[in-house]
Each structure stands twice: as C-alpha cells, then as structure tokens.
Amino acid sequence: MTDALFRAVSAALQDELVDAVALRHRLHAHPDLSGDEAWTAERVVDALGGTEVYEVATTGRMIPVGGSEGPMIAVRAELDALPIIEDTGAPFAAPGVAMHACGHDVHLAALVALARAVRQVGAPVPLLAVLQPREETRPSGALDLVREEAFTRWRVRAVIGAHLQPALPAGWVSATPGAVNASFDEVEITMQGRGGHGAYPHLNRDPVLALMHALVAAHQVVAVRTDPMHSAVFTVGHLDAAGTANVVPDSATARGALRALHAADRAMLCREVGRAVRSAAEAFGCRCRLQIRDGQPAVVNDDRLAGAARRWLDLAGFATDRTFRSCGSDDFAYYATAAPSLMMFVGVGDGDGVDGLHSPRFLPPDAAVGDVARSMLAGYLAGVDVAGGRPG
User: Fold this and answer.
1) Most buried of the four, 4, 143, 336, 363, by CB within 10 Å?
2) Are residues 185 and 270 in contact, defined by beta-carbon separation less than 8 angstroms?
3) What is the rounded CA–CA span in Å between residue 114 and residue 136?
4) Which part of the chain is the Peptidase M20 dimerisation domain (predicted)?
C-alpha cells in the first residue's frame, strides 16, 4: 500500500512544483523576522488551501491534511527569516534588512507542495502541516508548539523535518540516525577591572587582557576535555570594550556559543568553561560575571525513522548519506520530547564554494523546492511505516 502511495503522491507532487516555486519567490521577497511572521503564515495557509487552520504559538499555524482525526504524521517548516541584508542580486531578493538566509522560504514552499499532493491523492494517515515560528531566536517556537493542546490532540506519531545543507552536494540527502545537530548554549563573559592609562599597566587591572586569556582558556577546555571522537565547539562572535589605543577600559565583554553533540559533553563543558573563565579573572585581579544561557538540546534522530526514510529517498532518486552531522543547532530538537523525530539534510552544494547558511549571498536554486518536498515525502512515509501512524 505504501509503495502505491509513494508513486501517487510523487506524481501529484510534480504537478505542484511550478506554483510552489512561485510561492518560494514571493516568500523570499517578503521575509518576516522571528515573532513577526503573521504575513508569511497567512500566505502559506492561503497557498496550502486548508479549511481547518489552528493558530499556535502566537504566529504559528497547524493544518491537518487528509483528515482531522489522529493519529497523524507532522511535517514541519519554519516561518522566520534572519536580520541580514541580502546580497544575492536575485530578481526576487528581499529589499529590506531581513532575508531568508537559511532556506526557510524553500522549506515552506516544499511543505505546501507536499500537503497539496497528499490532499489530492488521499492518504491512509493524515499529514499535519506545522508552520513553526521563531526557529532563529528565543523563546523557541518549537518548544512552545509541543506544549500546545492542539499538538497533542491529534496524537502525533512522528515529526519530520528537512533542511537545506550546502555542505552536501545537490542530489544527496542525509538521513543519519542519532545526534545530527549540536546543542546550543549562549555564553556571555564580562570582566570588570580597573582602567587607566595604557602606559602604566601596573596601576591597572586590565579586563581586556583577562578576557582574552579567558577566551583562550575556554577554547582549550573544549579541545582537551572533549573526547576527540565527539564534536564540540566554542565560538565568539561579539567583543566589546570601551577603551582606545592608549586607554585601558574598566570592563570588557564577550558573547559566544558553546555547542556539543553529546548531552554529557554539554553539561561538562558548561561547568569547565565556567571554571576556566573564573580562574582567568582571578589571575589578572579582575571580577568576572559569567552567564551561560540554556539554548536547545541536540537534535537526535530516531533510528527506525532514519532507516525507513532512506528506502524512500533511494526510490526518489537521491543519493543517501547516513553519516552527516553538524554542529549547527535547531530547535527541532524539542519535537523529540513529544514523538519520534527525523531531521534530514538536503544537499544544495555545487562543489564550487557555494555561500553557506546565514550568508547574505545564500541563494539555493529553485530546484531545491522539489528536492525538499520529495525528502519530506520520504520522511512522511517513514512515519507511516514505522512510527505507529496507521489508524486504529
């Protein structure tokens, strides 16, 4: 039965792609930032054509397709864009200070194409189209959504996601079991010292020097305390000190991120980075304020869903990868607290230094809409096969 469903939905999906690409262009040209996605949500709902629409997590939407009785297989796409000024030169480029630099416009258009195809063909297990807000910022839209009564009402048996990935070649899709995206915790370090004239360092308590040593120590903690067969990374993206070339400031601040694929590493690194930072402050006679703000856990794929999806990906003509993992992070992780989940990565790399995610020049080709839609179909069918999605 599932093989026939695959063939029927695949054929119907092909007929939906022209309209889906047009929708992708429209969404790309009008990006909405996290928490302000109402326009995007309404355009997607209109294109999907659902008669039963539920507003969730403020700007999110859930639309059952193929029936309003559970159990269902949920397929998620993200509504929000990033605060980046686009530099692609595309005729449908965003004109303002936001852009879809992470492929969410493609994911949304693909989900619309899949949902419309499933509705046209009819399916034994309804699909729940999840339009999720606030993936790119906190508070997490996924965490809010899984707490919604509407999410539990339909007895969701599996949650499927597919994300563009320029690190993989076009034509490849990864369905890797286990941890595939890292946890994310935001780290903010402020060193409070005593500023003064740069010519008299012995009279100062230099917070900049203390901060630099703290950051090096934090990097060393990740390097020497993590099993080399595990993945973890510490990065710093913001530095702030109000001094000048000849003035030592009173304080200096750094903000960065700590990521780990394994939960035990996450807890250990948060603890040990804190210890290293406080030791650096003491060594240079400064006071330290350290904040490690909990982000999201690692994305962990269900083994059975990953294995089942690879069969359908093969039939769809993709080359499949079962080893790809990334220290990127995604609040898709929270869906695993409610049901087995699977995040696939859909290749858009061309082997020629394609600009990566969150770049102002990231512009996946329109063909990616079809690739993501077919990958979502593979995940949906995997849910039907192995995650208890059959009615009864």
Assistant:
1) 363
2) yes
3) 24
4) 186-281
Phi and psi torsions of 310, nearest 5°: -65, -35
Q: How far apart are CA 313 and CA 173, in angstroms?
A: 8
**pLDDT tens digits for 374-386?**
999 999 999 999 8
Domain boundary (294, 323, 358) is at 294
Residue 34 has what pLDDT? 97
Instruction: State which amino acid sits at residue 98.
Output: A
Q: How does pLDDT run across 128-155, given as a tens digit for each residue? A: 999 999 999 989 999 999 999 888 888 9
> Residues 160-217: pLDDT tens digits?
999 999 999 999 999 999 999 999 999 999 999 999 999 999 999 999 999 999 999 9
Contact 88, 105 (CB under 8 A): no
Contact assessment for residue 182 and residue 331, using Cβ atoms and an 8 Å cutoff: no
Which residue in the block uniquely carries the two structure tokens 């000849």?
Answer: 246
Q: Model confidence over 52-107: pLDDT tens digits?
A: 999 999 999 999 999 888 799 999 999 999 999 999 999 999 999 999 999 999 99
- Altogether, the residues listed in the chain come to a count of 392
Residues 208 and 107 grouped into a single domain: no
Planar angle of CA 21, 120, 158, nearest 5 degrees = 85
Burial of 103-119, coded b for 16+ CB within 10 Å and e otherwise, reads bbbbbbbbbbbbbbbbb
Q: Whole-angstrom Cα distance, residue 48 to residue 361?
A: 29
